[in-house]
Amino acid sequence: MEVLLAIIIGILYAAGVYMILRRSLVKLIIGIILLGNGANLLIFLLGRITEGAPPIIPEDSSVFTEAYADPVPQALILTAIVISFGLQSFAIILVKRAHKVVKTDDLDEMNATDEDS
Amino acid sequence: MLTAILLGFLFALFLVFTGKFFRGKLAVLSALIPAGLFAYFASFISKISAGEIITKTYEWVPAFGVNLSFKLDGLSLLFSLMITGIGFLVFSYTASYLKGHKYLDRFYGYLSVFMAAMLGLVLSNNIISLFVFWELTSISSFFLIGFNNDSAASRKSALTALGITGLGGFFLLSGVLLLGSMTGTYNITEMLSMQEAIAGSEYYILAASLFFVAAFTKSAQFPFHFWLPAAMKAPTPVSTYLHSATMVKAGVYLLMRFTPILGDHPFWNNTLIIVGGITMVYTAIHSLFRTDLKGILAYSTISALGILVFLIGLGTKAAFLAAAVFIMVHALYKATLFLVAGIIDHQAGTRDVTKLAGLRKVMMPVAIAGFLAAISSAGIPPTIGFLGKELTYEASLNFGTGTIIIVIAIVLTKIFLLWAGFAAGIKPFMGKLPEAQKETKMPGLLMWFPPIILAVLSILFGIFPSLIESAIVKPMVFALGADASEDHLALWHGFNTVLLLSAVTIGVGLLLYFLVRPSNKLEQKVAKLEFISPRSIMEKGNYYFVIFSRFWTNVFQNGYLRNYVTSIILFLVILVGYILFGHQRLVIDHSQLAEITAYELVVALILVAGVLYTVFTKSRLAAVAAMGVVGLSICLIFVFYSAPDLAMTQFSIDTLTVILFVLVLYRLPKYLSLSDYKMRLRDGVLSLALGTIICVLALQVLAEPANNEIGDFYAKNAYLLAHGKNVVNVILVDFRGTDTLIEISVLAIAAIGVFGLLKLRLKSTDRTQ
Amino acid sequence: MKTLILKTASAYLLPVLLVFSVFILLRGHYLPGGGFVGGLIAAIAFVLHAFANGLKNTKGLLQFHPGFLMPVGLGLAFLSGLAPVLGFDDPFMTGLWLPYDVPVLGSVGSALFFDIGVYFVVIGVTLTIIFTISESA
Hints:
Chain B: It is found in: Cell membrane; Membrane. Chain B is 73% helix and 2% strand. Chain B is mainly alpha-helical. In chain B, strand 1 (54-61) and strand 2 form a beta hairpin. By secondary structure, chain C is mainly alpha-helical. Helix content of chain C is 72%, strand content 0%. At the A-B interface, helix 1, helix 2 and helix 3 of A face helix 25, helix 26, helix 27, helix 28 and helix 29 of B.
């Protein structure tokens, strides 16, 4: 399964970067989201995956008695997921706003910083 | 002492608020500040001449050994007196010179910042604070040189000066840090005892070279000298103050200050003798080809600085004595000549020496000042200039090695300097007053009095050298590491070689003055050779550098997002790929890995299909829906592999993201087909390469043994320390609570950003709506 | 999207989902859940209500702008970290715990209040974003 996951991560990265390289604004955001998903999965995989052993201490004991999944990558990814929501919504609104002001969807036409160009 | 140094900064700050009151008649009151400081420093003379050294330390960043530490010894006393004394005269002079100028208050602000920085520089006993003040002088001089900021030439020369001295500052910082790490201290007094260790260090050459570049740029030594003549675009008070008396001497000061620490080493002495020697001869000859009064003075100033560097290089007691006297000599006569040149420019409206004559008829006191300064510059008795020249010759004659070359060089320099002094100080006043200048008026008292004071001092100290002998000169020589208590300054040394050389100098110099008159023809002749001068070479280098950086920027910073991304990824793929495929072999141990179950395979296939669909669909709505599928599949992967918290979060966020997209989708631009087939192919290959790299990288990492130390710690202590059983949650709210606190702050900022972008009526919206 | 079924269902769904979100929040320390997920579920509950009944009604139900939840939550989280500094002279974010267990909740401590702060911030952020966007879309 690890090999399969690694391939999936590779595909997510490739797709994300491909979309970022497009000139369309919406595709840029989709690319960022895909790339973010790929990164989350990569962290998850590199923390080693364990089946059926969530990092939750059994009810009747105060320490783990059996194997458990590493909680650190999980905590990292959880924050990453929530933050990426903030990032995505901000990016979407920025794109919408930019589209309105600059009146173009072509990233290549947005390469001047002056408002009135 | 801190107050004394900071006074200038405080006054500048004060001027920011009260500037408009100081533009008018009150302006002259500013001169009280340097005057007060001069009195303050003068009160230390008796203590210092008794051999005392006054130190004061204020802690600044004690953890790094950076303190505001000040030391007043013979060397810093002379400089402090020069800075405040000439400062006083320049401040008064300015009140009249720039009378009624719109930004007079600003000018005073810059001047006093400069004065304070200069004082801090010469009093610092800590090399870090020395560097800070050094940079402050560069910056304040930038503002002063570019004071007439509506003239392009003025701006350009200000930039040249800042560029050159800023470069020097960079070298000084490197030198300071290197020396600091060599000795383990930033305190100059402490370094004094480590001279041998420093000279024996393998980094000695490097450290000394760094200090050389700093000093040579600041003191306009060859080949960095050209910024100084260019800086003459500044108002004359600035030229007087910065470019003759104080700032350009900062480099000389640096060399003197570090003579007891870095000196007495063949590399130190030889470099200084050679560079100083080239500078003094080269620029003294140069002054012959100028017709601008200030141009002549600028070149003769550089030459004088060259003499000082040369004397420091000689490194004998006699040389130090000569340097100590010559610093004063030069400050007195050169400041006078600059002030005189400023008066001529101000009253007669031109600085072209070929057009000036006979001005003594309208401004006698100025002519007297000019004459006295010129003879002091020429070294004609009974001025202090004569004394300085005698000492210089004596030091050169007794140096030992290469005496003939050294003596020829110094005599040649003095001859040309005599010419320059006469051309600037006497020529404009002699002969018949031309018709064009009949209207020239006598300047105000505030203008002609300062040069007279300086010129009279030149004579006074020459006739009575005992006035300065034990008070200033000897403590200074002592600070340089030599004991001159047995020597005495006197005008008359008896008939000897030195006197003969003096006579030759004066004779040949006078002959030269009567034979060669400053003329445009000469200036034009030498202009033809301009293309090989250091200035044009550096300018050419600059020009090509700009072209190169423009090219570089256009290639890499072209404003196209995807080109940035492309180059970043390209480099990543090449570098990581080279390491991964060139040096590592991929080993996958299947026995260690989890098996693939049927439902996992299905989820994976759905995920891949979702990704492909997202990428290739032509419909935005379909892409968003497919992205939702991708998110849910990832959510399932989290479920399979023991991450219930992640699964829940991913599920909720996925839902919200889809909602968000659907809400704004129809307000968002439609897909455009902007790139052609070739472009897509190129991007596709690049993305696939990156995907492969990441995939191989992940497998490579998996082959390494895992380190779960941190996770184990959290898991063991989750319940015992934090009373929680869901370890992920415990990490978030307890172990790493501060991180989470910051994270939710970031979220709040993002929300405020969204709110602001949509709700606030910005200027651009009003325009477009 | 104003179907009758959804409209009727949302009237019941909102309180149920809210209670569920609080449940998820409180059990987070022992079982999967916590402030982040709880907050997201609560936000989804409101968004669902807004879909069914229109944004105005949801806003009327809320009485205040959801953005105010952000400073409230941030303040609560920050105070729960600050409490040990002020009260016990311990470092920032030291866990403080009641000596006895509270029924239903289990062990109660500063971390719980921190999580509640996170819960409020997440609701505030999500609703601010979505409401702002749907208003101007």
